[in-house]
Automatic annotation (TrEMBL):
One of its GO terms (biological process) is cobalamin biosynthetic process. It is found in: Cell membrane. Pathway: Cofactor biosynthesis; adenosylcobalamin biosynthesis. InterPro entries: Cobalamin_biosynth_CobD/CbiB. The keyword Transmembrane applies. This is Probable cobalamin biosynthesis protein CobD. GO terms for molecular function: ABC-type vitamin B12 transporter activity; threonine-phosphate decarboxylase activity. The gene is cobD. One of its GO terms (cellular component) is plasma membrane. It comes from Haladaptatus litoreus. Converts cobyric acid to cobinamide by the addition of aminopropanol on the F carboxylic group. It is a multi-pass membrane protein.
Length: 300
């Protein structure tokens, strides 16, 4: 079955490369988001309901996907591998992130108002008064953070489980993506129902965030960047996102800054458009490295 796991990783990579994202109407993550939206309201017991949501919704999604892949195995393992590859494709994303980051960074040199609007698709912050350098910082931060959230977490959950069971691997990738999606929609201090989702995501992302920092350092041909990053990684409120962000800031020798919240590599300058282009190249290499290593894990 290990060969089929590797095939699923390859299918996910090729689908991302050629299609970037499934159509919105057919995207399972969009469907899951609609389910989450129903729960996004005031509850009389928000902490208890929040715990049920955090534990229940990802489990339901994972079990459903695992059953579908198990049924596909009965038809033929190759059918199951193709289905698992499609599942993995829907739970990961990289090429769209790279292209969006490039486009927004270029806009900072030609149309800052449009760049401020477009950067909201990458970074959750008020961009209305950001300078061009601060917009580019938000873009570069999103590049590094989404390497962990959008690729490494689900891909490695799949790869670790693939030698055991293809249905389990597809279910694991789905579960991780569901947890991350819950956090992105509910995990805010202003939403008491999201407390459990936020804490669960912190736990799930602990290893992927640090793996992503390693991949960024290797892709930058400088593992010493990790020691530099350690000095700033705890500046952001998140226990995880600071690691890949700080490592990319060190690799590019630029300052990443979210005004009023954190500053990474404070002695450097805010990134130029050329710095962001270099960051895109680094994260692209890191993502390719991620797929290769995931394929090796899936094989063994």
């Amino acid at each position: 079955m290990t060969l089929y796991g590797v095939l699923a990783v390859a299918i996910a990579f090729l689908l991302d490369w050629f299609f970037m994202e499934p159509p919105t109407r057919a995207h399972p993550v969009v469907w899951f988001g609609k389910v989450i939206a129903v729960t996004d309201r005031e509850w009389s017991a928000p902490r208890q309901i929040g715990l049920l949501i955090a534990l229940g919704l990802p489990a339901i999604a994972a079990i459903g996907v695992g059953v579908l892949v198990q049924i596909a195995i009965v038809v033929h393992p190759l059918v199951a591998a193709v289905l698992a590859g499609i599942v993995l494709f829907t739970t990961t994303s990289m090429r769209m992130l790279l292209e969006t980051a490039t486009d927004v960074s270029e806009l900072t040199e030609t149309n800052i108002e449009t760049a401020r609007k477009e950067v909201r698709a990458l970074a959750g912050r008020d961009a209305s008064s950001l300078s061009p350098g601060e917009v580019r910082s938000a873009v570069a931060e999103s590049l590094s953070e989404n390497l962990a959230d959008g690729l490494v977490a689900s891909l490695f959950a799949f790869a670790i489980c693939a030698p055991i069971s293809l249905p389990l691997a597809a279910a694991a990738a789905t579960w991780v993506k569901a947890v991350n999606t819950l956090d992105s929609m509910l995990g805010y201090r202003s939403k008491p129902v999201g407390w459990a989702s936020a804490r669960l995501d912190d736990a799930v992302m602990w290893i992927p965030a640090r793996l992503s920092a390693v991949f960024i350092a290797v892709a930058s041909l400088g593992t010493g960047f990790l020691s530099d990053a350690r000095s700033w990684a705890h500046e952001p409120p998140s226990p995880n996102s600071g690691w890949p962000m700080a490592t990319l800031a060190a690799a590019l020798d630029t300052r990443f800054e979210k005004p009023g919240v954190y500053t990474l590599n404070p002695r450097a300058q805010l990134p130029t458009a050329a710095d962001v282009r270099q960051g895109v190249s680094v994260v692209r290499r890191a993502s390719l490295l991620t797929y290769v290593i995931a394929g090796v894990f899936a094989w063994f």
